[in-house]
Design goal:
mainly alpha; Serine Threonine Protein Phosphatase 5, Tetratricopeptide repeat; 3 domains; 14 helices; 0% strand
Length: 243
Amino acid sequence: MNRILPVITFFLILILAQASSAESGEMTADEHYLMGNALSSFGQYENATVEYRLALKLRPDYSDALNNLGIVLNRQGKYEEALEIADETVRLNPQDADAWYNRGVTLGKLERYEEEVDSYKQALTIRPNFSSAWENMGASYFDQGKFEEAIAAYHNATSQDQSNAVGWYYIGTIYEKIGQVEEAIQAFEKAIEINPNLGNVKSRLDKMKENLSSSSQDKDTLPEDKTDQNSSELFSGFMNILK
């Protein structure tokens, strides 16, 4: 049922757009924008790009179309072009928290991490409870090796969203990486308390508790590099999803 509704929506937009263009001879900026959204929802990013550009040709200051154009360019890996769009979007509407957030996402793809963090901070001055901006800031700090800053950012994300189990998972993963095992266990327990279905978190938590109960000598003999690598790989996988 959930897959049928987007299909119906897409065809309704298509029919309405065709009817409108038949009457007026051309589609409006709003119709091109809606068509772009429908195409994007089906993963047709190149076609969506065309529609957003047509909307902007008719209405150059159409900030929603600019925002979404930047998103689909990102999804095509066209990061430099997406950044140009993001810069134009925040110039036109500097009080748009989503525009600053999307700019941060693009800068992260370009590994321009300090500028990425600055963009999230701009978004948060406009919308302090922007949980996703806090999360992405944490991911950026992690990429820079600034683990304490990353933990603080994720704590802000979880304080803004009490149901954010994944945020607690990130916190636990960072604590695990820097060797603060007890804090990591507490964070993982919080994540599972919020969402008991996080099976991978539960298995890691059980393993950590098992290691913690072992003797100090046993823990010292663990292959440290492998542990760090596994933790980093799991964390990076979630970071890619987040960004």
